[in-house]
Write a structure and sequence with these properties.
This protein is of the alpha+beta class. 37% of the residues lie in helices and 37% in strands. It is built from 4 helices and 6 strands, in the order ααββαββββα. It has a 6-stranded mixed beta sheet. Strand 1 and strand 2 form a beta hairpin. It is globular and about 40 Å long.
Length: 123
C-alpha cells in the first residue's frame, strides 16, 4: 500500500510539472474531492492546473519531504518559477484509493508570497 500511495503522489507532481493536464483523469478518482478548492472530479484538477500554468508558465513543484502511512501521504513541496523572494511552499495531504488520489487537503504560502511580492513592487 505504501508504494502505491507514494507512486500516486509522484505521478501527480510529474504530470503537473510536465503540463500534462489530461493525466488528471488517470491520477484522480472519478469522485475525487479537493478540500481547499471545494471541487469534485479530475476535471476540476485539470481546470485548476490549466489556470495555474497560464498564470505561471514556468512553475514546477519540487517534493521536499513525503511521509506515507496507510492510504495517506503528507507532502511538503516548494514551488519554483513563480514571483517572490523565495519559492512558496505547500503542504498537501492525499488519501489514495485503488492507486488513485481520492481526496486532498492542502495549505500554501503561494498567495501570501505573491501578494507580498506585488506589494513590494508597488513601493
Amino acid at each position: 500500500m505504501t508504494d502505491d500511495v507514494r507512486a500516486a503522489a509522484q505521478r501527480m507532481y510529474t504530470a503537473f510539472n510536465a503540463h500534462d493536464h489530461a493525466a488528471a483523469a488517470e491520477i484522480f478518482t472519478a469522485d475525487f474531492y479537493s478540500h481547499p478548492l471545494g471541487t469534485t472530479g479530475p476535471e476540476s484538477v485539470t481546470q485548476s492546473w490549466q489556470r495555474f500554468h497560464e498564470a505561471f508558465p514556468a512553475a514546477r513543484v519540487v517534493v521536499e519531504d513525503m511521509v506515507v502511512e496507510g492510504d495517506t501521504a503528507a507532502v511538503r513541496t516548494s514551488v519554483h518559477g513563480v514571483p517572490g523572494r523565495q519559492p512558496p511552499t505547500m503542504l498537501e495531504i492525499f488519501r489514495v484509493r485503488d492507486g488513485r488520489i481520492a481526496e486532498l487537503w492542502g495549505l500554501s504560502s503561494l498567495r501570501r508570497d505573491s501578494e507580498a511580492a506585488a506589494a513590494q513592487a508597488h513601493r
